[in-house]
Each structure stands twice: as structure tokens, then as C-alpha cells.
Amino acid sequence: MAGVTLVSVAAVAALLLLLAGGGAIPPPEEAARMARFVLHNCDWGALATLSAQEGLRGQPFANIFSLSDGPPGPLGGSGVPYLYLTDMEISVQDLEINSNASLTVSLAQTPYCKKHKYDPQNPLCAHIIFCGSIVKVNDSEAGLAKKALFSRHPEMESWPKDHNWFFAKFNITNIWVLDYFGGLKIVTPEEYYSVKP
């Protein structure tokens, strides 16, 4: 009886891991799908700006931000990284001077790499680097951004209103995928948006 219980628990755990990860990881030859998969399965990323702060002006400055491309689940992702920002945040102040940025997301934040014993720097623990700019979303897109973010980050709804939060998106111009040995793969935004994760 104990053996059956352990097998059942292991099977349920494996199924939950697969569902939490949005399904099976794409193969290395499908770099655009990999980029979509990694973004959709990540809840946060490292956003690098060019600092506008005294003493750091012009220097790279990376900061962690919660993000979402849509509600969790295999069909919920748009591929657009949405963020919830305030002008009070130091990196947002940088973006007001220069909206160009890069955003890195990694499967290291999911159970996938730990399960396979991949170090976060191992190429098999896929990570994606997006380059582009941060733009405020317009009124017609705000509902989509709100649903995407609040479905994954419900705490955001209770953040102080006097901080003047606003919805923004990462406007992707370049994509680099590192998901296998042999170096980075380049994916165009057109390729990226044409596939599902």
C-alpha cells in the first residue's frame, strides 16, 4: 500500500509540474516557441536600464520586476511582457530619460531547472533576453494588461493608490534565446509573435 501511495504522489507531482510549466518544453530547434514558453512561464524578470541617477548616470542598472504576458495556463499568453509601474521607482525614473531597456527571463525561476539539476547559467536552463523599450499602454490595452498582471500578481490590486501606478509593456525589437549549447539564437519579433508557447 505504501508503494502505491508513493507512486501515486510522484505521478501527481509530475503532472502538476507539467501543468505549472504550461506543458512540455519546446525543442531547441524551435527558438521562437522557446522564447514564448519561457516568458509565459516566468512571473518576473531582470529589467536593465541606463541609469539617470547621480553617480551612476549612463551606467547599466538592472532591477527585478514582476511581469506577465497573460493569465497562467497553456492558452493564456499573448507574448507581450506587461508591467505595473510607478514613477516613484528608480528604474522607471531612468526610463523617463531613456525608454530603451533589456529584459531577461529565465526558467531558473520555475521548478524545471531544479528538477533537472541545471545550474541557472547552464544553457539547458533556458533564458531569453529581450531588447526594446518600455511604453505606457493605451486605454484600449489597459484591461488586457490588468488581467494579465493581476491574475498572476493579485497583491498588486492593493498597492497604494497614491503611488500613481500605471500599466506598461515591453515593446520588443530584438530577441536572443539561450536554450542549448552552441551560443545564442536570434529570433525576430515577427517570428516570436507568430507562434504559440
From TrEMBL:
Domain (CREG-like beta-barrel): residue spans on this chain: 26-194
Entry keywords, A to Z: Glycoprotein, Secreted, Signal
InterPro entries hit by this protein: CREG (IPR014631), CREG_beta-barrel (IPR055343), Split_barrel_FMN-bd (IPR012349)
Highest taxon above the source species: Eukaryota
Family classification: Belongs to the CREG family.
Matches recorded under PANTHER family: CREG1 PROTEIN, PROTEIN CREG1
Designated name of the protein: CREG1 protein
Organism: Glareola pratincola (Collared pratincole)
